[in-house]
Write the C-alpha cells for this entry.
Amino acid sequence: MIPRNHSAVTEFVFLAFPDNIQLQALVFTGMLVVYVVSILGNLLIIAAIWRDPHLHTPMYIFLGSLSITELCYTASVVPQMLLSVIQKRKSITIGGCGTQMFFYIALGSADSFLLVVMAYDRYVAICHPLHYAHIMSWQRCVWLVAASLVLGGLLSLEITALIFSLPFNDSNQIEHFLCDVNQLLKLASTSTAFVEIAQFVGSVTILSVPFLLIAVSYICIIRTILQIPSRKGQLQTFNTCSSHLMVVFLQYGCGSLVYLHPKSRKFDEMDHFVPLVYIFGTPILNPVIYSLRNKELKSAVRNSFFCTADADTSLLHNIHLGPL
C-alpha cells in the first residue's frame, strides 16, 4: 500500500507528549475518558438506528455511517496516542506511521464526503419532496456511502504514498502527537515542492470542494424555505438542517485551519492543537448535536435502551424531514 522508504529512518519519535509522570497520568486519563465517551455516544446512535425500524430511512442511514466512520477514525489514532503517553520511548515504526496516516486521512476524508451526501439528502427532501423516495433509493444510498469511503481511500493513498516516498535521513523527531503530513514534510531531506502541491490539491478536494457543494445545496434549500408562506413553517423546515450545519462548520473549520492556512509560525503552533479537536472533539460533539436536536433519535434511544412506557407517537410524522 505504501512504497518502501529507502532511508536510514526506521521509526519516528513524538516530542509533543509530556515527560512529567504526573502530567502523563492526567493526559492519559483525560484522553481515555474522552475516547470512551465518544465510543459510547456513537455506538448509542448506531444501535438506536439499527434497532428502530422507523429510523431505517436514508438520512439516518447516513448518520449511522457517519458515526461508524467516526469510530474507525478515532481508533486509527487514539490507541497509539494513549500508548505513547505511557511509554518511555514515544516512538512509532515507519510502517505504523504510514498506516496511521493512511487511515487518518482516508476516514477523515470520508467524513467530509458523507457530510456532502447528507446535505444532498436534505436538499432532495426539502426541494423535491415528491421525488424523495425515488431519488434516495436504498441502492443510491449504499452507492453514496461506498463512494465516500472509496474516494477518501484513494485520496489518502496518493498523499500517503507521496509522503513516504521521500527520504528521511536527517531527523526522525516529530513535534506532534501523531504522524501529521505537515510535520513529516519538515523532516524530509529533499525538496518537497511537488508533494506540497499534491497535498494542497488533495486538501482542496477534501475540504473546499465539499464545502462548496454543501453551500450550493443550502442556497437552494434556503430559497425553497423562503417560499413557505408561514414563519412557523420556515423555522420548522430550517430546523431540520441546523444540526448538520453545526457539524459542517466544526468539521471544515478545523480542517481548513490545519491544511489550508498560509505558512507562518503562528499557524504552525496551531497545528499542534487543532487536530485534537478533530480527533477528540468531533466524535463527541457530533452525537451530542444530533441527538439533542433530533426528537426521533432521542425517542428511539429512550425506547430502545431505557424502556420508557410511553412511546413517541410522533415518530412517523415528517420522517423524511427529521431534524438533521
